[in-house]
C-alpha cells in the first residue's frame, strides 16, 4: 500500500477515535467529577431534618419535564453561546456556579429553588428567583433581562428546583456555597496593573468602508 495512503488512513482512524471520545465526554460531562456525597438538611433553626444527595444528570431523562430541565442545564453551562443577546461579557452562569451547581464550595444551586422569594439588600425589597436571575444577567454578565415566561427562564428555574427536589420547604443543605476568604492576602495594585496589561485584549480598530 502506498505510504501516504497508510498515513492518511491512520490519521482518519485517530480522528475517529478522538471524535468519539470527545462526543462521549460531552454527553457525559460528569465522568471525571467526584461522586456527590449526602449533605445534612437543616431547618430554619439549624435542626437536622435528614440528608440530601444531589441528583445525577443521568436521572433527568426520566423526569416528566426532562426537556425543560435539560435545557436549563445547558443554558447555565453555555449561557454566552446560547443567549448571546442577553450576555455582554462572554460569561456563563456556571463561570461562577461550578460543577453544574451540584457541589459544596462551588457556589451551588442546591438551596436556590427554596430560598426565594426573599429580601435582597441591593433592590431593597423581596424578590423572586426570576428577578434574581435577571439581576445576574444585567450586572454579573453585563447583559439584558430574559422574559420571565420564556422557555429559557423557565428551563433554568426547572433545573434549579430539580436539584433541591425532595427537601422540605424552608430547609437548606448545610454544604457551604463558597470557602473562607484568605484575609492575609495583601492587594498589590502595581502587580495587578502588570497582569491586567498582559491579559487584557487589545482594542480592535474598525475602519468604515467607503
Query: Mind telling me the C-alpha Rg?
Result: 22 Å
Can you name the CATH architecture of the domain at 38-179? Orthogonal Bundle
Shape: globular
Helix content: 25-40%
The major β-sheet equals: 3 strands, antiparallel
**Low-pLDDT segments:** 5-27, 204-210
Number of strands: 5
CATH class of the domain at 38-179: Mainly Alpha
Summed over residues and divided by their number, the pLDDT gives a mean of: 84
- In the CATH hierarchy, what is the superfamily of the domain at 38-179? Cytochrome c-like domain
In N-to-C order, the SSE pattern is HEEHHEEHHEH
Specify the structural class. mainly alpha
CATH fold-type name of the domain at 38-179: Cytochrome Bc1 Complex, Chain D, domain 2
What does this entry show, briefly?
This protein has 210 residues and is mainly α. The protein contains 6 helices and 5 strands.
What would you note in describing this structure?
The protein has about 210 residues and is mostly helical. It has a domain at about 40-180: Cytochrome c-like domain (Cytochrome Bc1 Complex, Chain D, domain 2, Orthogonal Bundle), CATH 1.10.760. It is about 35% helix and about 10% strand. It contains six helices and five strands, in the order H-E-E-H-H-E-E-H-H-E-H. The strands form two sheets. A three-stranded antiparallel beta sheet has the order 2-1-5, with no helix packed on it. A hairpin with a 5-residue loop joins strand 1 and strand 2. The longest helix has 25 residues, at about 5-25. The protein is globular.
